[in-house]
UniProtKB/TrEMBL annotation:
SUPFAM superfamilies: Prokaryotic SH3-related domain (SSF82057), Zinc beta-ribbon (SSF57783). Residues 3-32 form the Protein YjdM N-terminal domain. PANTHER family: PROTEIN YJDM, PROTEIN YJDM-RELATED. Coiled coil: none annotated. InterPro entries: YjdM, YjdM_C, YjdM_N. Residues 45-112 form the Protein YjdM C-terminal domain. Pfam families: YjdM (PF03831), Zn_Ribbon_YjdM (PF08274). Belongs to the YjdM family. This is Alkylphosphonate utilization protein.
């Protein structure tokens, strides 16, 4: 009988295996049975100047950006506070005053 590792998210011992995935019924976290935590690599997100971005940073827009589905434009120099980094093409989630919640590409911002 093999013992499965505890859940890396909540440390519960109730994990079970389904095909190549390990699952935690306590929190719903799924991870690969073949991967180890030491080999996990996190993607580093950088701004237009090459500075590393982190959650909670304040950035400035470096180019006028058209808002899809609207005639509005986010102007150059707009300060965006408290960003959140996410996976995907638009790798920054934020709230911009006057526009609301938006997703931005890191190549169009500069860290303040």
């Amino acid at each position: 009988m093999s013992t499965l590792p505890a859940c890396p998210a909540c440390q519960a011992d109730y994990t079970y295996q389904d095909a190549n995935l390990l699952l935690c019924p306590a929190c719903g976290h799924e991870w690969s049975a073949n991967a180890t935590e030491s080999t996990e690599q996190t993607k580093v997100i950088r701004d237009s100047a090459g500075n590393e971005l982190q959650d909670g940073d304040t950035v400035t827009v470096i180019k006028d950006l058209k808002v899809k589905g609207s005639s509005s434009v986010v102007k150059i120099g707009t300060k965006v506070k408290n960003i959140r980094l996410v996976e995907g093409d638009h790798d920054i989630d934020c709230k911009i005053d006057g526009f609301g919640a938006m997703s931005l590409k890191s190549e169009f911002v500069r860290k303040v």
